[in-house]
Fold this sequence. Notes:
6 helices; 2 strands
Amino acid sequence: MIRTLLGGLLGGFALFLTGFVFWGTPLANIAYSHADPTVSTNLQAALAQGLTQTGTGAYLIPSTTTSEGTILYGKGPIAQVLFNINGYPSLDMNALIGGLILALVVGVIFALALRFVSGDTSTRIRAVVAFAMAAVLWLHIGQPVFNHAPWGYFLYLGFSDFVGLVLAGVIAAKLMPDSPATVTVDPVTTPRNPTTDNSFGSPLRSDSDPLP
């Protein structure tokens, strides 16, 4: 268990570092589209004027809660806005601390889940890759598929999470001791000869049985 926890913590730290490389450095600009600075300023002012009263939240623009909004949504353009009424630094230390704690927790949970995978390190690594791929495809790539979200952003997000999860899982798997797979063997039974078996319940009589 100690090696599992250690592997989970180290894997979680690797997950955190991976996220920082992809999202805390200029590499993150790959994921975003960029508006003209003047347009960006005007949009920020419009957001402040239009959404401040309703507050922080996720907004579908135009809203489809009315028939008119549904028609406008079908015509486009449309936006899904994650609106925060308060600003914060682009590199927020409080968010980094919380993110580190979250990454460590995720790493430990991942390592504990790998304990249910019997076999050697390579078997666990294959399970890690399969799990990471399935999670990324459903959670991230599903957004462009279902919600017509921008492919570029979610492909970048999915790739970054896939790399982080695989690194976390590989580190945890390498620190775990190998566990032999449990093999169930059916009990060996001796075939019965119906002509010679005199056990109780035999359906046939043998030649040596006395006549009634």
